[in-house]
Design brief:
The chain is of the alpha+beta class and about 400 residues long. The protein folds into three domains: about 110 residues, Aminopeptidase, CATH 3.40.630; about 160 residues, Gcn5-related N-acetyltransferase (GNAT) (Aminopeptidase, 3-Layer(aba) Sandwich), CATH 3.40.630.30; about 90 residues, SCP2 sterol-binding domain (Nonspecific Lipid-transfer Protein, Chain A). It contains eleven helices and 19 strands. A seven-stranded mixed sheet has the order 1-2-3-4-5-14-6. Strands 8-9-10-11-12-7-13 form a seven-stranded mixed sheet, sandwiched between helices. A five-stranded mixed sheet has the order 17-16-15-18-19. Strand 2 and strand 3 form a beta hairpin. The longest helix is centred in the N-terminal third of the chain and has 15 residues. It is globular. The two termini are about 30 Å apart. One of its GO terms (molecular function) is aminoglycoside N-acetyltransferase activity.
């Protein structure tokens, strides 16, 4: 079997093979893009070929930036389009492609790789762990009134204040530049968020609001008229579904939520991709107004270079932790001393006794601060070598704000 990059002339072969692996047929191409795979980077698409040259597997990667705790931006590969023809499954094709791809990502000098899982049971064995999570919030319109923020009324605490901005409704086709600019501002401050390169917007590649699917967009502008948030939505059979709500501050998010919850001729509002623990539920006058559903993992993270990855993110508590990290898929093992001082980390090999022993996939899960190490200790994934190790790890790995990823790839 041969695994090699796809040539420009073979993009159609790659797309056909990928779809065949999932039992699907490619959509009809449209002028100017508009297909979810329009933004594939041909030189980062891999084909697995039999000895007689038949394509039987695919794997690809996008070039993104990932925002880490502390608002650090790092390049990452977004792994996608991984599939093997049904006739060649369980013959080592997937393992071979993943090894080949991981070696290539390291050769690019990247310390991290990310992906979204079609099946959660597949990618843990390749070293990926779930690191961000998402939920769906369904709100009956007649119960969706928002209460005033008590903290501000009582003590002037930080909370969404009176909105001095405005909301305007546009068609998706009319506001592409606004969406691109607002999303880029948002993702630079949000841990776990991925960049959306300009070519994605230009090619309309992905899901709404990037794709050309018809949508209305509520655009929020601050008091100075500068766009600082948007909500992309559609209405069908009395249900208003918000694809995504992007806001650069709490006041803009609240204003957009109030707008969609007050839409006429709507019986319920569904907010897609709400991060767990989001304050919106606490803003309802009726706490039970929002029904949580669709709770699932989203972004999975894989560390390719443990010291570089750990020193790249921001840290918020001083301390030391010895991590004994096993990487069974690549046959690697390392023990590292993580030392955090004044928000910066140093990570070096050590022979000191470990505080925690863990698989690289579990390190990926805790890396962004969205999964507490103590949770994985209790689950039997991480071994704590002394009573205080889990609590120390929880304190060190916490993020400045919960990680969340909206981008689909």
């Amino acid at each position: 079997m041969e695994i090699r990059p796809t040539t420009d002339d073979e993009l159609g072969v790659f797309v056909d093979t990928m779809h065949a692996a999932f039992g699907q047929f490619p959509e009809t191409p449209v002028e100017g893009g508009g297909l979810w795979w329009s933004a594939l980077e041909t030189d980062r698409c891999l084909l697995a070929l039999t000895a007689d040259g038949r394509p039987v597997g695919t794997a690809a990667a996008y070039s993104f930036e990932l925002t880490l705790p502390g608002q650090t931006l790092v390049p990452v590969s977004g792994v996608t389009a991984v599939g093997v023809l049904p006739s060649h499954r369980r013959q080592g094709v997937l393992n071979a492609m993943m090894r080949h791809q991981l070696a290539g990502l390291r050769a690019r000098g990247e310390a991290l790789s990310v992906l979204l899982c079609s099946e959660a049971s597949i990618y843990g064995r390749f070293g990926y762990g779930p690191a961000t999570y998402t939920q769906r919030l369904t709100v009956p319109r007649h119960r969706g009134s928002l209460a005033p923020p008590r903290a501000r009324e009582a003590a002037g605490a930080a909370a969404p204040g009176p909105d001095n901005g405005s909301v305007e409704v546009r068609r998706r086709a009319e506001c592409g530049e606004i969406l691109e600019e607002v999303y880029d501002r948002y993702r630079r401050a949000q841990p776990g968020a991925l960049s959306r390169p300009h070519r994605w917007w230009a090619l309309r590649a992905g899901q709404p609001p990037i794709s050309p699917a018809p949508r209305y967009v509520a655009v929020h502008r601050d008091a100075g008229g500068v766009p600082d948030g948007y909500a992309s939505y559609s209405i069908e059979s009395g249900t208003l579904t918000v694809d995504e709500t992007i806001a650069t501050d709490a006041a803009a998010f609240t204003a957009l939520a109030r707008f969609v919850l007050g839409h006429d001729l709507v019986s319920q509002v569904v907010f897609q991709h709400v991060p767990p623990g989001h304050p919106l539920r606490w803003q309802f006058a009726d706490f039970r107004a929002g029904e949580v559903g669709g709770d699932m993992d989203w972004l999975w993270v894989r560390l390719l270079d443990v010291p570089r990855a750990l020193t790249a993110r921001g840290w918020f508590t001083d301390g030391e932790l010895v991590l004994d990290v096993d990487d069974p898929f690549l046959g690697e093992h390392g023990r590292y001393l993580l030392t955090v001082r004044d928000s910066k980390a140093d990570c070096v090999p050590t022979d000191r006794e470990p505080d925690l022993s863990l698989d690289v996939r579990d390190l990926g899960s805790v890396y962004l601060g969205g999964t507490a190490p103590s949770t994985l200790v209790r689950a039997g994934h991480i071994r704590a070598h002394h009573p205080g190790a889990a609590a120390l790890a929880d304190t060190l790995f916490r993020a400045d704000r919960p990680p969340h990823c909206l981008h689909w790839f």
